[in-house]
Each structure stands twice: as C-alpha cells, then as structure tokens.
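User: I'm writing a short report section on ligand binding and want a predicted complex to refer to. Could you take this sequence and flavin-adenine dinucleotide and write out the structure as tokens? A short remark afterwards would be nice.
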Amino acid sequence: MVRVGGNGRALDTWDAIYDVVVVGYGYAGAIAAIEASDSGSDVLVLEKMPQPGGISICSGGNVRTAEDAELAFAYLKETCAGTTPDDVLQALAEGMTEVVGYFERLASVNGAKLDSRLAAGNYPFPGLDTFGYVSIGEVPGFDAAASYPHVSSYLPAHRAAGIRLFKVIEDNIAQRDISVWLESPALRLLTGPDEEVCGLVVGTKHGELRVKARQGVVLASGGFEASAEIQHQHWQEKPVLLAAFRGSTGDGIRMAQELGADLWHMWNYHGTYGFKHPDPDYPYGIRLKRLPDWIPGRPPRSDVKMPWILVDQKGRRFMNEYPPYLQDTAYRPMALYDPMTQSYPRIPAYLLIDQEAHGTFPLCSPTFNDRELSFEYSPESLKDLEDRIVRRANSLADLAAKLGVEEAILGETLNRWNASCEAAEDVDFGRPPPSMMKVATPPFYYAEVWPICSNTHGGPVHNARQQVLNAFKEPIPRLYAAGELGGVFGHLYLAGGNMAECFVGGWTAGREAAGLEPLQ
Ligand SMILES: Cc1cc2nc3c(=O)[nH]c(=O)nc-3n(C[C@H](O)[C@H](O)[C@H](O)COP(=O)(O)OP(=O)(O)OC[C@H]3O[C@@H](n4cnc5c(N)ncnc54)[C@H](O)[C@@H]3O)c2cc1C
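Assistant: Sure. The structure tokens for the complex follow:
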C-alpha cells in the first residue's frame, strides 16, 4: 500500500534524500545552505534558473550593520509601524550587530577585502545613527565582467559590490560539500501524515523528481514582482515594471500557501519611478541613477541637484520628485486611481527637463541577471539609450502637444515651479530646496516614467526563528523562510535591510533546520 502524505501525495519513493533542502540560490539561500552544512547537515540547494545569483547579484551589495542592537530595534520598530512583531525585529537587530564578523569569516575564503562604514538610516526615527554598511570592497584577481557576463549591475563595474559579494558566497558554497541543482525549480512541498514538511517535488530536465528533506526545507526563493498575477491581486497601481530579475515569480509564496501559511507585507515593495526600455522585448524597467538619500529634519546636501519635475497626464505636478529615500517610496504617489475616468492619471507620468539641464545627469542605468540578454552597456551605449528614451520638444506648445496636455495648464505648472525655484521653496510638495532646478529654457526634454519595483517584501509570515507560520500563528513543522520572501518591512524600508535579512534570516533558518531531529 502506498503511504500518502498530508497533501495527498505518495511518500514511499524518493529520487534523492538530503537533510536540508534550500529553495533558491540568492544570498539568503546560500547563507542558509552554508550554515546548515556547517552544522553537519547534508544540504541541497535548488535553483530554477540556469544561473545562480537571483536578484542578489544585481544589488549594490550593501548589507546593513548596527552598533547597538537596542537602538537598531527601536528604529526597525518605527520603520515597520506595527506590521511585524517585536521579537522578529529584535532578532534582526541583534543579527545586524554580528554581520561584520560573519563577513570576515566568509571573506577568508578568497582573501576578499571588506568595506565597513557608518551610515545613518533613512528616516528620522530613534536609533537612526547606530547603523552602518558592510560590503565587499575587493576580491583579489576577480574580474566581474568576465565571470558574470550575464549580470549588469546598476553600479559601475568598479563599484559592483553585489557581484563581488556573490563571488565570495559562491566560493564558500564550493568549499563545502553542498549539492547545487541548477534549472531545477521546486514545484510543491510534500508533507508527511503528521503534516510535517518532508520533501519537495522538483522539476528537472529528466522530469519531476521527489526529493526528501529529512530535517527541513528553507524557502529562499526571493520576491514576486515578476508575477503579473500576484502583482494584480495585491497592488493598486498598474502596470509596475520589474527592475532586474524575471525569476522573482513568487513560487515560494504559493508553496507555503498550500500548507496554510499566512502572508504579510504583500502591498509594500521597494520601488521608485523610472523608464521603459525602447526595445519592447527588453523585460526590465530602468531605474533612475541613485541620488543620495536625505533625512527629513537634517539639512539636505547642497551639492545634489535634481534637474527634473514630474507632471501627470493633465500636465500638473503631483509629488515631491525627491522624497527622502528615492528608491523606497517614490512610486507611491503614482498609485492614484481616478474613478471618474477609470484610469491611472499618473501612469505613465512625464519627466520634464530643459535645455540648461539636459545632459547634466545620466538618467538610465539598466540592471539584470539574465542569460537571455545580450546587451552590453558602455558609457556610449548608455548615452544612446538615454537619447532614445528622452525626447525633445522645441517649445512649450510643442511639449504640450507631444504630452497631449493643455498648453495653458502646462505653462502654469512650469511658471509655478520656476517661481518656487527662485524662492527656494516648494510650497506644494516640500522638495528639498538645494535640489530644485528650473525647467524654463527651451528646447524641453521629456520622458515617460513608470512605477518600478526593485524588489518585494511580502510573502509567508515567519517568527524570530524563521519558521513559517500559519494563519493562527502556529509554525508549519520543518518549514523555514529567509531573505525577501516574507521580509519584515511592512511600512517603510531601511536601505541595506533586505540583505541584512538574507544574512540574519539565512543563518538562522539554516541553523534551525539543521538542528532538527531527522525524519526516518
Ligand atoms: C538594483 C538593486 C539593488 C539593490 N541593492 C541592495 C543593497 O545594496 N542592499 C540591500 O539590502 N538590498 C538591495 N537590493 C535588494 C536585495 O538585492 C534583495 O532583496 C535580496 O538580494 C534578495 O535576496 P534573496 O536571496 O531573498 O532573493 P534572490 O536573490 O532573488 O534569490 C532567490 C532565488 O530563488 C530562485 N527561485 C525562485 N523560485 C524558485 C523555485 N521554485 N525553485 C528554485 N529556485 C527558485 C530565483 O531564481 C533566485 O535565484 C537591491 C535590489 C535591486 C534590484
């Protein structure tokens, strides 16, 4: 007789048996695997794409650190605004104080140099100044472009710390006895008769395989911004472009949901506004070049200019184009839905600059981890790309006609903005005065801008031990989550926090799973 598990699947035959199975080979999955392996478990990492790295490898590579766990907790509590329990945030805050030491251990694999520095948080909350970043400054003899030609970092190659960190992590995985299966998506979780997670169904070139996980499964499958279906169900604004990685399809969410997992933070993603690529087959939005963040209540930097304003489809300004953390919340004002017209009058919105400012600021910086793309960006090709995205209008009348707005309204918008620049005060939306530049001298330049999701935070709820919880806050036995799959941020984001979650959540999940008594 065939033994049947809690979700009705047969349990007698296994194609492979491991102690801990990790789903996803980004930073979070890799750290979970390293920790489970170092705790003595036999570990398998499943990665559905032909290449590892996920969105992680495209990142800025900056991991949040903290000097004082209590202060970091105070800050995180405000950042999450009651959407995440204290003990979960305390665990992350404590972990942030250990990240530098952890980096040092990882970096010894290949002699990589650390870059560790103080850097305040993003919003004026208690604990703001306890934070810093750590990243990988240099890996001796490592050529990022040669090793990862399919990755375009949003930072220039010499600053591509996300790629360097991934190199350090990959070398650590290779140093250990960890099995990695590429092009092998986890499809479904398997549970035993007592509802414990005991394995997975995995898609492979050779058909579906059944892999037993004797100790536990860590879901580290990243975000869901590449799933139009999940986006539509959880986000008001549409369309939203994805920033970097088409593997982020929320698979871990579905697998956890099948076992009754509760979900959190699905609405809140880390995003900004940016451009559509002129090639319709190019799957990613193009984020703006990152401007330095500024903290409300502290003087903004006087040397940082932003030469554009945004207007809606009527030609009116509608937001502070330079919110404190541009990459966190800048998409949010675009979400407005007008029930009178049944449309989103700010999607797309239009970015406007004038002749004086044109060319003073590089607008485009494409990012991806994708073997199917063959774009190679150089300063020249980026300039060419910008010229295809940012178009010219010879006069106000021409600009109004090209945007399809009333010239009188657009003229009023520009006059008001230019007067605000002269007065050095944006009475309408509170943009920091030093950043303000007039849009006055024709010819004008304009581009459509769209909401862009850098990465999501939502997914299965977890506790401080990274155990996935059901809707009654009970752990689903032997199931863990790490990284941005079910991240803690449910209100505002702390820059570098996603990767702090990959490390702290990853090492916690790996150790916890490896600490369980193996199933027979
Ligand atoms: C341009 C950019 C810059 C950023 N910079 C920073 C930064 O400096 N600091 C910071 O903290 N955060 C940053 N972030 C966010 C950060 O990179 C991510 O939140 C983090 O790397 C997510 O890591 P992860 O391991 O959870 O997910 P991922 O790195 O996406 O890894 C998940 C992996 O799971 C795989 N997978 C998915 N489904 C399955 C399945 N069914 N079976 C098997 N495998 C599957 C995916 O293919 C992927 O490889 C940045 C994001 C972007 C876009």
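A remark for your report: The two ends are 18 Å apart (CA to CA). The first strand starts at residue 16 and ends at 23.
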